[in-house]
Amino acid sequence: MEKEQLQVEIRKLARDRKALILAHNYQPPEIQEIADLVGDSLELSLKAARTEARVIVFCGVLFMAETAHIVSPDKTVLFPAPQACCAMASMITPEDVRVLREKYPGAPVVTYVNSYAEVKAESDICCTSANVVRVIASLPEREVICLPDMNLARYAQRHFPDKKIIYHQGFCPFHDTLTPEDVRRAREAHPGALFVAHPECRPEVIDLADHVASTSGMLKFCRESEHREFIIGTEVGLLYPLRKQNPDKKFYPASEKMLCEAMKLTTLELVYRALETLEPRVEVPEEIRKRALRAVKRMLEIPRG
Q1: Crossing angle, helix 268-277 and helix 3-17, to 10 degrees?
Q2: What's the average model confidence in pLDDT over 177-197?
Q3: Is the preceding peptide bond at 80 cis, omega within 30 degrees of 0?
Q4: Residue 242 dihedral angles phi and psi, to the nearest 5°
Q5: Per-residue pLDDT averaged across 148-157, rounded?
Q6: For position 266, what pLDDT does the model report?
Q7: Residue 283 — very low, low, confident or very high, per pLDDT cuts 50/70/90?
Q8: What does the pLDDT look like over 66-92, one tens digit per residue?
Q9: What gap in Å lies between CA 57 and CA 44, rounded to an integer?
Q10: In a domain, 305, yes or no
Q11: Do residue 205 and residue 250 come from a single domain?
Q12: At CA 197, angle to CA 157 and CA 130, rounded to 5?
C-alpha cells in the first residue's frame, strides 16, 4: 500500500479495535501523523490511562510501553517494534541499584522514567527530565542517588549546592554525543538563533544553552518565545513537531549526529500488523508492576508548586 492509504487503514483499524495510538516526539513523521497523541513518554502513558481505550499502541522504545502497562494494567499494550530498546535504559540493572543502596545507605533512589520496569521497581521515586529538580527538592535527605543518566543527575546537582547527588555512569548516546564544538558550529551557521538544550546533554553543553528543557518544555518554550530561530539540542525527530506547531519560525538541529536509531524502527507496516494481530504485547509481571507503580505514584503526588 501507498503511505497515505496505509495511514487511512491504520486509523480505521484503530477505531475498530478501540485503540489509542501513542507516538513519542522522536518518532518518524509518518508515525506522528497517525497518532492520537504525540508527546513525552510518561505524559502519553498517563493521558492514555484516563481514556476508555481498550488497546494502547505505543510507538517508541520498550521502557515506554512498559510504563503504559504499569499505569494501565487493564489495557492491552501493543509495541509494534519489539527490537526498539533504549541504550541508556540498558546501561543499568536492578543489581546495580541494590549495590548503590548498600554503598550509600539512607540515600533515596530517584530513577528517571527512561528506565526499565525492574529498575523502577527497585527505586523510591521516579522523575522526568522536566521535574527532576522538583523531585529531588521534595526529598529531605542530603545524599540522593539519581539514576541512570549521569548527565541528568549532574544537571540537577546545579540546583542543590547543599546536597550530594550520586549517579550511575549511564547516559543517552545521542544526547551525550553533542559537544561544545558542535554547538559553536551551529551558532556560527545561525548567529541569530537561540540554543535550547536537553538536560541529558553534557554539562559543558548545558553551559552554552540559552534555555534548558525537556522535549515538551522545548515545544512550549519555542511556541511562546518571541524569537524566530532556534538551535535544538535534542533528537532530530523533535524538529518535525516544532516546525508543524510553528510554521513561521525556523529550527535547526544542534547536530545531525543526534539521531536515535531505536526511535526510527517503528514503521507504518509494523503498526498495522500490531493492530491486526493484537501482537506483540508488553506485560510487566504484577509484582514488579506494583513496585514500579509505587515509585511513579510518589512522583505524581509531589505538588507542582
Answers
A1: 30
A2: 98
A3: no
A4: -60, -50
A5: 98
A6: 98
A7: very high
A8: 999 999 999 999 999 999 999 999 999
A9: 11
A10: no
A11: yes
A12: 60
Q: What is the DSSP string of 16-45?
A: HHTEEEEEETTS-HHHHHH-SEEE-HHHHH
Residue showing cell 540546583: 159
How confident is residue 304, by pLDDT bands cut at 50, 70 and 90?
A: confident
- Who contacts 226 (Cβ-Cβ below 8 Å, separation ≥6)? none
Q: Are residues 94 and 139 in the same domain?
A: yes
Question: Which uninterrupted H or E stretch holds 56?
Answer: strand 55-59
Residue 206 belongs to domain spanning = 178-257
- Measure the CA–CA gap between 156 and 109, rounded to whole angstroms: 14
User: Measured in whole angstroms, how far is the alpha carbon of residue 153 from the centre of its chain?
Assistant: 15
90 three-class SS? helix
Whether the ω angle into residue 94 lies within 30 degrees of 0, i.e. cis, is no
Q: What is the pLDDT of residue 305?
A: 63
Residues with Cβ within 8 Å of residue 182, at least 6 apart in sequence:
254, 255, 257
pLDDT score at 303: 85
Tell me the C-alpha distance between 80 and 57, whole Å.
7
Q: 296 and 159, same structural domain?
A: yes
Give the integer Cα–Cα distance in Å for 266 and 107. Answer: 38
What secondary structure letter does DSSP report for 170?
B
Peptide bond connecting 173 to the previous residue in cis, omega within 30 degrees of 0:
no
Does 238 lie in the same domain as 222? yes
Question: Cell for 204?
Answer: 559543558
Burial class, 195, CB count within 10 angstroms (exposed 0-12 / middle 13-18 / buried 19+): buried
**In this structure, what are the phi and psi dihedrals at residue 246, rounded to the nearest 5 degrees?**
-130, 70
pLDDT digits (tens, 9 = 90+) for 207-225: 999 999 999 999 999 999 9
DSSP structure string for 155-224: HHHTT-TTSEEEE-SB--HHHHT--HHHHHHHHHHSTTPEEEE-TTS-HHHHTT-SEE--HHHHHHHHHH
